[in-house]
């Protein structure tokens, strides 16, 4: 009995309609990226493990898909690790490559490798799939697309302002209105950790804080305690978890809370610059909201951090990003600040679908279908099709000499505008019978008339 086909959990097949809808989103994002001056690059789907590991924190490292070495991968396995069932030590000896977890770390590697070919500041965009060994659920997949835009080679805060505008522009064009662009600054989080006496637990602190929306305040406190953050320190964090009001009033409260932290106050100053200038320039349909609990668990962020949430649909973030001052430094290129944002195409798709925001999808199809009446007629049709395609008219020959009803049904189901019938009489007279499938009109014509008719429809 044949095995029933299946695909791995967390992956999906896409129908022609779904691909067309996804391409619509891709095109809107790509057009905006290029409008803002970004250039396209692509990187391999897999990287050396050493490039990826250690860049995303402990949790991120666990979600990286490792690739077994080619050939007899066990021949060089760490025998002690194999005997002791030490998976971490064993993995290092049997896997040298891994599927990329995101597009930012590979981009940093790209910048370092190609630094002599790049004009800085370098603005790049990249739209490719990434893979994470996560638990599949609604809006969370193991294979998904990211659409990233980054700038490296400048510390200017005007870039943060422009990225907020870019988010707003793209979601406005997708008619996904009332999105909330959350913003925070990693320096503020470092300042908070300093003020509460938990600087040595900064990563544990930010990772736990980033889960506030998922596990709630009690869950965050429990995780912090489990990581060795004291109850006294957690009590000092409590006012921040209750912080409310408009952006300016929250910034003013932060100035008081962080008065003893220079780094924290620098973060407040940077946020103030971005928030004030975005307010002066204005946004179309989005809102910018300060969220001091926004942490984004990735270790490489050093300044502003962003996260975007859609209104009306509970989906998790549909975009995120931030500034990273040290990412290229781990590959040997110092003093190269960067900032980038990402659009989660798959979640954006689900939100647009749920809200009914997709316009009617026009699937790729020929404008003209030529009916197949036999070998001689088919050759004559293909000669004509070649000339039509040279004139940018999408044309197709039905491949089989099937019953006329079957071929006409094919044209109807694909919503093809015109059908051309070439039988023995048309062949002898070098003519065509052109049928308009919308009106039902049918006429005999030469090539010039046929071309004009289908071009003007």
From TrEMBL:
EC identifiers of the protein: 6.1.1.21
Compartments it resides in: Cytoplasm
Catalytic activity: tRNA(His) + L-histidine + ATP = L-histidyl-tRNA(His) + AMP + diphosphate + H(+)
Start and end residues of each Aminoacyl-transfer RNA synthetases class-II family profile domain: 1-364
First-listed, main subcellular location of the protein, grouped into a coarse class: cytoplasm
Keyword field: Aminoacyl-tRNA synthetase, ATP-binding, Cytoplasm, Ligase, Nucleotide-binding, Protein biosynthesis
Gene Ontology MF terms: histidine-tRNA ligase activity
UniProt record similarity statement: Belongs to the class-II aminoacyl-tRNA synthetase family.
Subunit and interaction comment: Homodimer.
Protein name, as recorded: Histidine--tRNA ligase
């Amino acid at each position: 009995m044949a095995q029933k086909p299946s695909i791995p959990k967390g992956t999906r097949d896409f129908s022609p309609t779904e691909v067309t809808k996804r391409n619509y989103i891709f095109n809107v994002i790509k057009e905006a990226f290029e409008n803002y001056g970004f250039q396209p690059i692509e990187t391999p789907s897999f990287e050396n493990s050493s490039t990826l590991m250690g860049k995303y924190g402990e949790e991120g490292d666990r979600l990286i898909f490792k690739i077994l070495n080619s050939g007899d991968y066990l021949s060089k396995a760490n025998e002690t690790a194999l005997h002791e069932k030490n998976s971490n030590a064993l993995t290092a000896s049997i896997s040298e490559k891994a599927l990329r977890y995101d597009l930012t770390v590979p981009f940093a590697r790209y910048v370092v490798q190609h630094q002599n070919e790049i004009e800085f500041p370098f603005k790049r965009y990249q739209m490719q799939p990434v893979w994470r060994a996560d638990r599949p659920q609604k809006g969370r997949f193991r294979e998904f697309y990211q659409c990233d835009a980054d700038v490296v080679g400048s510390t200017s805060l005007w870039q943060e302002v422009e990225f907020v505008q870019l988010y707003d522009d793209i979601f406005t064009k997708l008619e996904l209105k009332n999105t909330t662009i959350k913003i925070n600054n990693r320096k503020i989080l470092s300042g908070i950790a300093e003020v509460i006496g938990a600087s040595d637990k900064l990563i544990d602190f930010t990772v736990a804080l980033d889960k506030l929306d998922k596990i709630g305040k009690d869950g965050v406190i429990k995780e912090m305690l489990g990581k060795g953050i004291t109850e006294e320190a957690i009590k000092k964090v409590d006012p921040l978890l209750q912080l409310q009001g408009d952006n300016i009033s929250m910034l003013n409260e932060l100035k008081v809370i962080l008065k003893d932290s220079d780094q924290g106050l620098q973060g407040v100053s940077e946020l103030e610059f971005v928030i004030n200038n975005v307010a002066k320039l204005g946004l179309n349909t989005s809102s910018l909201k300060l969220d001091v609990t926004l942490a984004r668990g990735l270790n490489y962020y050093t300044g502003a951090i962003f996260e975007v949430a859609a209104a009306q649909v509970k989906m998790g973030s549909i975009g995120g990003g931030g500034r990273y001052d040290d990412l290229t430094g781990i590959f040997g290129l110092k003093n190269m600040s960067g900032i980038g944002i990402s659009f989660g195409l798959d979640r954006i798709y689900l939100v647009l679908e749920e809200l009914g925001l997709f316009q009617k999808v026009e699937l790729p199809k020929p404008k003209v279908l030529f009916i197949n009446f036999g070998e001689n007629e088919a050759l004559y049709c293909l000669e004509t099709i070649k000339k039509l395609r040279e004139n940018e008219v999408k044309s197709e020959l039905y491949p089989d000499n099937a019953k006329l009803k079957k071929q006409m049904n094919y044209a109807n189901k694909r919503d093809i505008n015109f059908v051309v019938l070439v039988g023995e009489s048309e062949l002898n007279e070098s003519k065509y019978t052109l049928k308009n499938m919308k009106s039902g009109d049918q006429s005999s014509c030469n090539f010039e008339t046929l071309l004009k008719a289908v071009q003007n429809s």
